[in-house]
Amino acid sequence: MSKEFDVVVIGAGPGGYIAAIRAAQLGKSVACIEKWKNPAGALKLGGTCLNVGCIPSKALLASSEEFENASHHLADHGISVNDVKIDVTKMLARKEGIVEKMTKGIEFLFRKNKITWLKGHGKFTGKNEAGVQIEVSGEGETEVVTAKNVIIATGSKARHLPGMPVDNKIIADNEGALSFDTVPKKLAVIGAGVIGLELGSVWRRLGAEVTVLEALPEFLGAADQALAKEAAKLFKKQGLDIHVGVKVGEVKATDKNVTINYTDKDGNAQVLEADRLIVSVGRVPNTDNLGLEAIGLKTNERGFIDIDDHCATAVPNVYAIGDVVRGPMLAHKAEDEGVLVAEIIDGQKPHIDYNCIPWVIYTEPEIAWVGKTEQQLKSEGREIKTGQFPFMANGRALGINKADGFVKMIADAKTDELLGVHIISANASDLIAEAVVAMEFKAAAEDIGRICHPHPSLSEVMREAALAVDKRALNM
User: What is the spatial distance between Cα 285 and Cα 170, in angstroms, rounded to a whole number?
Assistant: First the structure.
């Protein structure tokens, strides 16, 4: 007799573990299947995000920022520091300590919410009146469990390119780039997206000479053009050498270095030699060996599982969330979908406004936005008005030596409804939350302009940008 659960979640990344916790809070019997093992061979919850994604990369970004501040910026405060050194081994150990603390935290939450962790690989084997059957294999004996409802939350993995075998030593994806044992003298990065810019920034701050190759003709094409232009200027000033519109050709790696042949945007043949190469050209959904066909499901031509507006697949009581379905591959989007599905299973009627999901790039300065860009709105023929305010006119930004960047707000020309907020600044990831709240409640730019903001604070720039929409910023 197989074990039976109200809800079985396949995958314990941000979408999966949050879905499991919410379903358990709602009184369901819940199991979560996860097979992730760390390099030491220990089974861990948290998926890519906690183990080799969001959390460790932010730890390294923080460490490298501290190093750069001590090396170059403390003198501005009148603090003299000599002979600053980086202990890469200790930095990596700190990162691993944070990851361990976070993954242990999820184990605690599973115990607290009485969630069964099924350790191994989950694969559909069929369905009957009792529910969907899932085989769990890989740790000890293989067992089959029955689920009344299933949530597929298997996430994604790094896209690899033909002719570039990733060994995570010389040629690395996001996993290897988080664990270089020394600072490369020369580092090449293929892909100027979120991961490429963040990890390129980490090693650039620590002393690497970083060259970024991007196939697309525009830098940060998904961002508002004003943001992308400012970011390109600041990254160039920092020393990131970014080339757009390139076509990568043959890549040759030895056990000590790598040579990248490419054609630049003008059609000229170029050769780039580096000690290490990071390949960050997007991610592909994890649907390998899931046995979808056993329950009558398949992936679409892009490898994603098709769903409706409520994350339901074509098979009744089977849902999919996060990176295996349409939409941005963002941990917080997966979390929201996990909560949504758990509440739908409970009979509730939740809703996600995908236009109000924020994007963040954790460079220095950070880049964050929510809603639509000016170019998107203009292409739709929408009448808009914009307001922009720089951090160089903000006392708090000057005080903490972080005066780069600005806030840009876009509102409907007639109704003043906020349509997009775009920020490049220190702490943009925190500042954007105010914009998300405002847009969820269909606020007008004037609403933010009339709310009292603490002084001195970076958040005052949000207010000033909102006032600037109506050309009445107070400090410009």
Answer: 25
Domain ranges of the chain: 3-157+284-352, 171-281, 358-468
pLDDT in tens, 75-109: 999 999 999 999 999 999 999 999 999 999 999 99
239 annotated ligand binder: no
* Buried/exposed code over 218-228 (b: 16+ C-beta within 10 A; e: otherwise): ebbeebbebbb
Q: Is 154 annotated as a binding residue?
A: yes
CA atoms within 13 A of residue 128's CA, in its CB half-sphere: 8
Over residues 105-130, the pLDDT tens digits come to: 999 999 999 999 999 999 999 999 99
Q: Is the pTM of this model over 0.85?
A: yes
Pairing, β 3-10 against β 143-152:
parallel
121 is in an annotated binding site: no
d(CA 53, CA 332): 13
Tokens found for residue 423: 């920020």
User: What is the mean predicted confidence (pLDDT) over 297-310?
Assistant: 97
CA 349 to chain centre: 27
User: Do residues 411 and 418 touch, judged by C-beta distance below 8 A?
Assistant: yes
Average pLDDT on 219-236 reads: 98
Domains 3-157+284-352 and 358-468 share a fold: no
Is 281 annotated as belonging to a binding site? no
First and final C-alpha spacing in the chain = 72
Q: Is 98 helix (H, G, I), strand (E, B) or coil?
A: helix
Does residue 191 have a known ligand-binding role? yes
Question: Tokens 């979908």 map to which residue?
Answer: 337
- Check the annotation: does 241 bind a ligand: no
Could you give the maximum distance between any two Cα atoms of the chain, in Å?
Answer: 73
Cis peptide before 456 (omega within 30 of 0): yes
Residue 91: φ, ψ to 5°: -60, -45
Q: Using 50, 70 and 90 to split pLDDT, how confident is the model at 1?
A: low
Residues annotated as catalytic are 455
Q: Which amino acid is at 52?
A: V
**Alpha-carbon distance 182 to 325, whole Å?**
37
Q: If pLDDT is split at 50, 70 and 90, which confidence band does 184 have?
A: very high
Q: How large a percentage of the chain has pLDDT more than 70?
A: 100
Kindly report the CATH number that applies to the domain delimited by 3-157+284-352.
Answer: 3.50.50.60
Please tell me the CATH code under which domain 171-281 is placed: 3.50.50.60
- DSSP states along 330-372: -HHHHHHHHHHHHHHHTT------GGG--EEE-SSSEEEEEE-
Q: Give yes or no for residue 368 having a pLDDT over 90.
A: yes
Q: Which fold has domain 358-468?
A: Enolase-like; domain 1 (3.30.390)
Angle between helices 225-238 and 194-205 (to 10 degrees): 20
* pLDDT band with cut points at 50, 70 and 90 for residue 140: confident
Average predicted confidence (pLDDT) for the chain:
97
